[in-house]
Design goal:
This protein is of the alpha+beta class. The protein has 2 domains: about 70 residues, Orthogonal Bundle (Arc Repressor Mutant, subunit A); about 90 residues, Winged helix-like DNA-binding domain superfamily/Winged helix DNA-binding domain (Arc Repressor Mutant, subunit A, Orthogonal Bundle). The chain is built from 9 helices and 5 strands; from the N terminus they run αααββααβααββαα. The strands form 2 sheets. Strands 3-5-4 form a 3-stranded antiparallel β-sheet. It has a two-stranded antiparallel ribbon with strand order 1-2. A hairpin with a 2-residue loop joins strand 1 and strand 2. Helix 2 crosses helix 3 and helix 4 packs across helix 9. It starts with a helix and ends in a 16-residue tail after the last helix.
């Protein structure tokens, strides 16, 4: 591949990441760009990463949820947060975030188990989190009543900038992360436990 072709591929890969808005795997990019090999895509990603690191741009390449995406640099995070605070005034309720944290660290977990930890009925927050695709149903627990088992989704990883669940911070760090990101990543208008519009098992 000539230097001109390599430059064109770097530009194309950058454009794909920008247009996607969510993590993309190298093999997906190669499949979309007919005739381009996965190793060439990975080289283009490396060049793109060096480009953003060596320039005073507000973007960087970030590997999350098994793919790569364009993300804002930490140095400009506060300005980005201010922008989204102005643009989106609403957020998930404290009950929903509390439920999300329990599922993240205890999964797979059932609604009765969540209620035992929270001391409150989690049906409303669970429905909200399922609707927003931050949680998913993993199956049913083989006990009396066969309650549903809940776990986090790929969208959860994307929202919190994690490559896998192994990258979860400590509980204290997660609480701080939630406080920083809630106005950026999730915008909805809910009340505390009044988010429910129907029962959740």
């Amino acid at each position: 591949m000539s230097s001109v072709e390599q430059d064109q591929l770097v530009a194309a890969v950058g454009a794909v990441l920008f247009a996607s808005g969510e993590p993309v795997q190298p093999n997906e990019i190669a499949s979309a760009l007919k005739g381009v090999a996965v190793p060439d895509v990975k080289k283009a990603l490396e060049k793109l990463q060096v480009h953003y690191e060596n320039n005073e741009a507000g973007l960087r390449l970030e590997w999350v949820a098994g793919g790569v995406r364009l993300a804002t640099r930490p140095e400009v995070a506060e300005w980005v947060r201010q922008f989204f605070r102005e643009r989106h005034r609403t957020r998930l309720s404290p009950a929903a975030f509390e439920t999300l944290a329990i599922v993240a660290y205890r999964q797979p977990v059932t609604a009765p188990e969540i209620q035992a930890i929270r001391g409150k009925d989690p049906q409303g927050p669970l429905k909200t989190l399922l609707d927003k695709k931050l949680l998913r149903i993993l199956g049913k627990k083989k006990v009396i009543g066969n309650p549903l088992l809940y776990g986090t989704s790929k969208q959860f990883l994307v929202h919190f900038g994690l490559n896998s669940l192994q990258d979860l911070p400590s509980m204290d760090e997660f609480d701080a992360l939630v406080g920083e990101l809630e106005t950026i990543h999730i915008t909805s208008e809910e009340t505390d436990d009044g988010e429910d519009s129907g029962p959740v098992e």
